[in-house]
Amino acid sequence: LEQAARVRADADAFVVIGIGGSNQASRAAVKALRPEGGPAILWAGNTISACEMARTLRELDGYQSIYIDCIAKNFETLEPGIAFRVLRQYLERRYGAEGAAKRIFATGTPGSTLHQLCLDQGYTFLTFPETIGGRYSVGSDVGLFPMAVAGVDIRALVQGMRDMRDTLLAAPAEENPALRYACLRRLLLEHGYRLEMLSFFEPRLDYFAKWWIQLFAESEGKEGKGLFPASVEFTADLHSMGQYIQEGKRLMFETVVRLGPSDRQLTVPADEADGDGLNFLAGKSLDFIRDRAMEGTLLAHTEGGVPNLIVETSGRTPADLGQLIYFFEYACGLSGYLLDVNPFDQPGVEAYKKNMFALLGKPGYEDRR
Ligand code: PA5
Predict the structure, then answer these.
(1) Exposed/middle/buried for 303, CB within 10 Å: 0-12, 13-18, 19+?
(2) Residue 263 — pLDDT band, cuts 50, 70, 90?
(3) Catalytic: 115?
(4) b/e 202-230 (16+ beta carbons within 10 angstroms → b)
(5) Is 108 in the pocket of ligand 1 (CB under 6 A)?
(6) How many other CB atoms are there within 10 angstroms of residue 335's CB atom?
(7) How confident is the model at residue 321 (pLDDT cuts 50, 70, 90)?
(8) How open is the CA angle 96-100-102, to the nearest 5 degrees?
(9) Beta carbons of 21 and 134 less than 8 angstroms apart
(10) Which distant-in-sequence residues (6+ apart) come within 8 Å of 230 by Cβ?
(11) In what order do the strands lie in the sheet with 13-17?
């Protein structure tokens, strides 16, 4: 919180460098909860696209005061590694080596190369807990520091996570929502369903859905097992994927994330002429109309042979998001164990890295060439 306040007070732009689980949760929370004001938040290190890097550098040229945070567990992943090198040098060109060092943060495992780099160069080092994989790291410096810089109330978010943890640890099995969700996923898999579609009716949850996909794909997709996690944003995707969900191959069930009431209310205005024939909606709030869309969709999809599960929050505050995050993390752990896989490793991710290292001539990978 102290470091984030320092950055927030001085920065015009803050670049979060990281890939996969290591940046997905903070991106999800910032997108869903970010209050107005504060520095622009940019995301880098999650691609090897020259266009993207050039675009980021161009955008940064327009800001006076820039800070960066490189998140990398063991600092062996190329995407954040390359972005960090490019952005470090960019900051050095703009602020000099000493000035840049004050603006550079890194979040890594103590004892890693990244840690050593911070010690050598005087960068601020934050801790990536050694025993936690990126996708479960939301409640550590990994997720919380970028959120705090963006102005998200991380105390409330962590409290939400704690509350959900207490609830899940205390609830008897039959009433335990995470265990029920994990068991339903397992039962549906046994009944031939192969894909779980997370749907949501609030566009700002798009990165939350990406984080959810990250969580379940990397935790369960191993040993030839696991549901294929995908997501859709409704109502927009009802006009594309909605067709497939309703009438395509029967292989999926749907998990709907429902948030509590919007913080802003808007009603459809009356129009005396009613030329568009919409007066039947006059005076009704968009939340009300959206809820009817939700019910109509649920009914149609269930009738079309797509079972629906609903995960609902009472509100849409940082605490609510914290609860939702902890709920899915906990359920994912349980669900992985029900599948008899280790939900906390990701051996499959290493395969592409090793081939790429060999193809790029990284020392130590000669035997794979
Ligand atoms: O959940 C995970 O552990 C992964 O998604 C990692 O976060 C991702 O592969 C990036 O790893 P690293 O932080 O080591 O670059």
Answers:
(1) exposed
(2) confident
(3) no
(4) bebbbbbbbbbbbbbbbbbbbeeebbbbb
(5) no
(6) 26
(7) very high
(8) 130
(9) yes
(10) 195, 196, 197, 198, 213, 252
(11) 40-44, 13-17, 66-71, 104-108, 124-127
Residue length of the chain: 369
Which atom, in ligand 1's list, is nearest to the CA of 22? 7
Among 174, 190, 239, 249, the active-site one is: 239
- Tokens in use for 306? 């797509």
Total-model pTM: 0.96
Query: Phi/psi of residue 214, each to 5°?
Result: -55, -50
Task: Please give the number of the atom of ligand 1 that sits closest to the Cα of 137.
Answer: 1
Measured by CA distance, the residue closest to atom 9 of ligand 1 is: 20
Tell me how crowded residue 163 is: count the other CB atoms within 10 A of its CB. Answer: 14
What's the whole-number mean pLDDT along residues 67-92?
96
Which amino acid, one-letter code, is at 140? S
SS3 312: strand
Cα separation of 87 and 197, whole Å? 37
- Catalytic site residue 218? yes
What lies within 8 Å, CB to CB, of 13 at 6+ separation is: 39, 40, 41, 42, 59, 60, 63, 65, 66, 67
Is 301 a known active-site residue? no
Q: Does ligand 1 have an atom closer than 6 angstroms to the CB of 107? A: no
Question: What are the tens digits of pLDDT across the range 20-32?
Answer: 999 999 999 999 9
Side-chain-side CA neighbours of 85 within 13 Å: the count stands at 6
